[in-house]
């Protein structure tokens, strides 16, 4: 037990002796030696790997799948308080000509295809472009009516059918008075007895279509995007949104990015675990906003974008600039320009040295260059070239 302890102490003493000798040697170094010891080792040349691919610029953006055209439908608030009382169509449902889009104060609001908002109530005997628009809309709704611009009997019958098939009573008002017969004074031969004065005739009830029960859309068939919920107050500024046309993807990008996008550019959408090819069909600057932006519309191949996906979000990747495809790619700083348009890169060998490779620089983009080796020495993906 004592021997082991002594051995341990002896070993410790040797260690301390060695450490003390090293410390003494260090303390006795000259200033030049200490400076040399503190200097970091000199680093070797910096290299980058040669790759192969397309030299192109791609932007990414969130996109929404929807039908190509969206339209806001405006409501006309009736006199007094107005509120949605029931039966609005849900998002995604079809809105056809002559169908009730919603119900306000217990009355329907029918969608009529046309080019302008109705500007007055319509009733028997009036005529004008608004009457003709109504007649054309009723025709689109499958109702028989004479399209002569005059609100006559056939128009009344078609309006009555429109309300009847939707389960609503026909709106009516008092028509022109029919008591316009001229009364004859009694002759001298008549008895002196004066008959009682005739009663005033009652004005007949006629169909009077309020403009508050009509809204105008630019097509005869659309799909609902949004409509005010039951209980929502209705003002003249209240809107419903519908969309129509083929399916498309719509994205918004900053104006400086949008300036580089052109119709016909190709891209892809990532949605539902897959990628679908799309083509830019429209580039529309959004003006008058605090931050200007650009709206991009993209169409897919037939069947690529499904109507059932309307409203879904997708990731858009769009190639906005292509310099060259399937090229050898190196950092632009690796390309050393020479006289008369010649260029070269320094390729690292297996031994760590460098050999000069003549190249043709096809183009540059975002700090990368597409090159082709022109000499006897080859350049291939996986090689390393000197960049610093």
TrEMBL record:
Matching SUPFAM superfamilies: PGBD-like (SSF47090)
Annotated signal peptide: none
Q: Supply the InterPro entries for this chain.
A: Peptidoglycan-bd-like, PGBD-like_sf, PGBDSf
The protein in question is named: Peptidoglycan binding-like domain-containing protein
Comp. bias regions, Polar residues = 179-190
User: According to the UniProt record, where is the region Disordered?
Assistant: 34-53, 169-204
Superkingdom per UniProt = Bacteria
* UniProt xrefs under Gene3D superfamilies: PGBD-like superfamily/PGBD (1.10.101.10)
Q: Which organism is it from?
A: Frondihabitans sucicola
Query: Record's Pfam families?
Result: PG_binding_1 (PF01471)
Cite the Peptidoglycan binding-like domain residue spans from the record: 127-161
């Amino acid at each position: 037990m004592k021997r082991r302890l002594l051995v341990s102490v002896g070993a410790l003493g040797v260690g301390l002796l060695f450490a003390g000798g090293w410390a003494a040697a260090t303390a006795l170094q000259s200033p030049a030696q200490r400076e040399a010891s503190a200097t970091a080792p000199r680093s070797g040349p910096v290299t980058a790997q040669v790759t192969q691919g397309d030299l192109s610029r791609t932007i990414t953006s969130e996109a929404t799948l929807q039908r190509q055209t969206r339209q806001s439908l405006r409501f006309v608030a009736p006199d007094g308080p107005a509120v949605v009382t029931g039966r609005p169509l849900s998002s995604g449902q079809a809105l056809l000509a002559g169908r009730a889009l919603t119900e306000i104060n217990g009355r329907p609001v029918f969608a009529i295809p046309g080019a302008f908002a109705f500007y007055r109530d319509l009733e028997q005997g009036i005529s004008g472009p608004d009457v003709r628009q109504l007649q054309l809309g009723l025709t689109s709704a499958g109702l028989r009516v004479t399209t002569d611009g005059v609100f006559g009997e056939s128009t009344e019958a078609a309006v009555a059918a429109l309300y009847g098939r939707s389960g609503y009573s026909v709106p009516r008002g008092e028509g022109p008075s029919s008591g316009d017969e001229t009364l004859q004074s009694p002759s001298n031969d008549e008895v002196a007895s004066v008959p009682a004065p005739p009663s005033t005739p009652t004005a007949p009830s006629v169909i009077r279509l309020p403009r508050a029960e009509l809204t105008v859309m630019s097509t005869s068939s659309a799909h609902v995007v949004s409509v005010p919920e039951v209980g929502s107050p209705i003002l003249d500024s209240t809107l419903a949104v519908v969309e129509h046309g083929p399916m498309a993807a719509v994205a918004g990008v900053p104006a400086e990015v949008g300036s580089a996008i052109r119709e016909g550019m190709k891209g892809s959408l990532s949605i539902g675990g897959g990628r679908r090819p799309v083509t830019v069909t429209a580039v529309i600057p959004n003006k008058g906003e605090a931050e200007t932006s650009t709206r991009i519309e993209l169409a897919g191949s037939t069947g690529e974008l499904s109507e059932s996906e309307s409203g879904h979000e997708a990731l858009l990747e769009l190639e906005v600039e292509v310099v060259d495809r399937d090229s050898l790619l190196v950092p632009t700083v690796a390309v050393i320009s020479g006289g008369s348009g010649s260029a070269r890169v320094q390729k690292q060998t297996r031994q760590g040295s460098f050999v000069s490779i003549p190249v043709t620089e096809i183009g540059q983009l975002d700090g990368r260059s597409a090159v082709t080796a022109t000499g006897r020495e080859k350049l291939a993906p996986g090689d390393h070239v000197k960049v610093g």
